Amino acid sequence: xxxxxxxxxxxxAASLAPSGDNTQPWKFSVDRERRSIxxxxxxxxxxxxxxxxxxxxxxxxxxxxENMSRTAAFNRWDYRVEPLEFEGLVRFxxxxxxxxxxTIEDVVRRRVTNRRAYQQMTLPPDCLQRLCEVGxxxxxxxxxxxxxxxxxxxxxxxxxxADAIMLGTKSVRNGFxxxxxxxxxxxxxxxxxxxxGSLEVALADRIALRVLKSxxxxxxxxxxxxxxxxxxxxxxxLAGSASGFLLVCSTGDGGEQSDVDVGRAWQKMWLGFTxxxxxxQPMMSLLVLQNMLRNAPGEFSQPDRQTAEKLVNQFNAVVAxxxxxxxxxxxxxxxxxASPPTSRVGRLPSGQRAE
Length: 355
Description:
With 355 residues, the chain is an alpha+beta fold. It contains 12 helices and 8 strands. It folds into 2 domains: 108 residues, NADH Oxidase (3-Layer(aba) Sandwich); 212 residues, NADH Oxidase (3-Layer(aba) Sandwich). Helix content is 46%, strand content 14%. The chain has a 4-stranded antiparallel sheet, covered by helices on one side. The chain has a 4-stranded antiparallel sheet with strand order 5-6-8-7, sandwiched between helices. The protein starts with a helix and ends in a 19-residue tail after the last strand. InterPro entries: Nitroreductase-like.
């Protein structure tokens, strides 16, 4: 198969990976002759306090790498993945390709973030068993599926309170709103950012988001007019409708490659959910608070910082009581049965991120 065709298929597969608010924070340095691609992040693509330290960007890059690896395996191409220190984060090289045209697996194209309320049902044991088997194949990370009702209740409460603090913080709120495409039709599959339709919010909530975007009120005004209660209520409704939560734990040294490994494991499980016909959505507010306490504590008011610390400690206690892992939780998402999303976002042309 032509080297250019191999590279183009891999770049398209990588571009289909999820990223925080659809920022697509990656870049690809291509050597077509050697069928080699160096993956790295572009920090300016997502400067939000939620991404302080760029860990979420590196996880997104890990998801792109997983899509490339899965696509190469699907086409029976021999490939090599090399962590890098200076010229980028990872190099992906196809060492041998078949003569047939390369294709992208349907599940990679179908994977989507579903922000609807789910059906709050217990999943069949055989479904959970298959998902556990996917988790056992993850490398350099650990995954855990939490489905115990008592633990889910505790998590839902913590997530709802964490969302209130996270989106009740002006710099985070404005960072999120800057990614919402108020300038485009509601259901347009925008190439960057989030369409209003993809948020799955009611008309009144869409109006409220526009007001928050245009007026940029202080945190005290948002709290006074019930903004924090609204953020908490929405999070509680969504989290409470899930059949379970996926936790992805880092087993590395906490460095940049650990984030990439978490992203690969996260995407592997997300594709597993998609194959089972399940909906999934990242729910990262507790981990965002944890990250900001470490990398951007000045973004919080003193009372909010203390509240965030308590929530993170309570979350870690819940994880410990579940026996999930002694490692650090780096990513979390809800999963369950749901109707298809009303809208989905698009992607920038894959070649636009290639050099």
